[in-house]
């Protein structure tokens, strides 16, 4: 399954909401992402068919093992980029926005390099 930026954003939102609230429903994801519920329904069908989420009879959603792995990787990248940008003086609101955009495009090697710079700087 091709993992698009949109799918990654849905997975990351599901992970965030599950951690924050203990459960996730389509309406929660719609609010979090600022999209309409029909868009979430379409995305959920695609994510479920790719074995990235499970939608239960009570309409709650859970990440599968594969979905969780992808969401965790994206979240980790986001946190790394946000911390890095803040550490070089970028205002937090700008860093959050930019990190959300960057998280999808840099390679694991670049992420590792940024973490290395941050670790050396913190010492």
Key terms:
single chain, 123 residues, mainly alpha, two-stranded antiparallel ribbon, 5% strand
Description:
This protein has 123 residues and is mainly alpha-helical. Helix content is 71%, strand content 5%. It has helices spanning 5-21, 26-33, 37-49, 65-87, 92-102, 108-122, and strands spanning 53-55, 61-63. The protein has a two-stranded antiparallel ribbon. A hairpin with a 5-residue loop joins strand 1 (53-55) and strand 2. Helix 4 packs across helix 5.
**Helix/sheet category:** mainly alpha
Distinct helical segment count? 6
Tell me, what's the shape? Answer: elongated
- Taking all Cα atoms into account, the compactness measure Rg is 16 Å
Kindly estimate the percentage of residues that lie in beta strands according to DSSP: under 5%
Quote the average pLDDT.
Answer: 93
What share of residues is helical?
over 70%
Total strand count, please? Answer: 2
């Amino acid at each position: 399954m091709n993992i698009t930026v949109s799918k990654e954003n849905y997975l990351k939102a599901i992970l965030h909401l599950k951690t924050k609230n203990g459960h996730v429903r389509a309406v929660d994801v719609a609010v979090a992402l600022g999209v309409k519920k029909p868009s979430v329904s379409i995305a959920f069908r695609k994510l479920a068919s790719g074995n990235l989420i499970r939608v239960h009879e009570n309409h709650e959603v859970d990440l599968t093992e594969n979905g969780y792995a992808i969401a965790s990787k994206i979240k980790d990248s986001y946190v790394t980029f946000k911390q890095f940008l803040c550490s070089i003086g970028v205002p937090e609101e700008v860093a959050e926005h930019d990190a959300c955009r960057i998280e999808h495009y840099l390679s694991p090697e670049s992420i590792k390099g940024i973490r290395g710079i941050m670790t050396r700087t913190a010492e």
